[in-house]
């Protein structure tokens, strides 16, 4: 891709998987949105679409900055960027909804979230904006912002279920390491 005479190449980033302790790192605010920040965002979109997923927090790709990318559209046509996001619950009772996560591949569990929120953030150009989100988008925003705080959806489920998932993923990681 060429932009203003600068050639950039998108890259697929490695997604950290539970129980990797780096997923527990709290992300730091982005102080200045630069070309490097925008390259991270492009790489995150490329990684998310390839995975395939609908949301990705920078923490999941071992970049500990408050950056989230989301696209809940069927045809990957509505990419959203949230830098230094803050969420406010607007209304509605929390509902149990099934969630999955690129950092916890192959597992889905019910998590209680509200389905209507407001998010304030910076876009990829560093411009402040706010938007209301409902339904899947609201849930996805809350899920991804948890990552920026070092929290995973498995933290909302019982210790027994979380330990079972951890053991299965650790076993899968050992098998992958042997095959490499």
Summarize the structure in words.
This protein has 180 residues and is of the alpha+beta class. It contains three helices and nine strands; from the N terminus they run ββαβββββββαα. Strands 3-4-5-8-9 form a five-stranded antiparallel sheet. Strand 8 and strand 9 (128-134) form a beta hairpin. The chain is globular. Mean pLDDT is 93; it is low at 1-7.
Helicity, in percent?
Answer: 25-40%
Terminal Cα span: 32 Å
Low-confidence stretches: 1-7
Give a short account of the largest sheet. Answer: 5 strands, antiparallel
- Tell me, briefly, the overall form: globular
- Strands ordered across the widest β-sheet: 3-4-5-8-9
The protein's oligomeric status is single chain
How many E-type strands? Answer: 9
Helical region count? 3
What amount of the residues lies in strands? Answer: 25-35%
The overall average pLDDT, rounded, is: 93
Structural class: alpha+beta
H/E element order = EEHEEEEEEEHH
Specify Rg, calculated over alpha carbons: 17 Å
In short:
With 180 residues, this protein is an alpha+beta fold.
């Amino acid at each position: 891709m060429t932009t203003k005479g600068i050639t950039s190449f998108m890259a697929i980033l490695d997604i950290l998987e539970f129980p990797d302790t780096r997923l527990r790192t709290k992300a730091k605010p982005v102080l200045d949105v630069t070309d490097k920040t925008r390259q991270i965002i492009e790489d995150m979109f490329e990684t998310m679409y390839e995975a395939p997923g609908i949301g990705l927090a920078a923490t999941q790709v071992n970049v500990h900055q408050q950056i989230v990318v989301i696209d809940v559209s069927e045809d990957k046509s509505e990419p959203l960027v949230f830098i230094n996001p803050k969420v406010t619950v607007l209304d509605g009772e929390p509902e149990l909804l099934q969630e999955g996560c690129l950092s916890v591949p192959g597992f889905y569990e019910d998590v209680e979230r509200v389905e209507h929120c407001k998010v304030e953030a910076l876009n990829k150009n560093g411009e402040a904006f706010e938007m209301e989100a409902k339904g899947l988008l609201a849930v996805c925003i809350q899920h991804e912002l948890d990552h920026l705080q070092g929290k995973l959806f498995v933290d909302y489920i019982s210790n027994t279920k979380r330990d079972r998932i951890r053991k299965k993923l650790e076993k899968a990681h050992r098998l992958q390491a042997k095959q490499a």
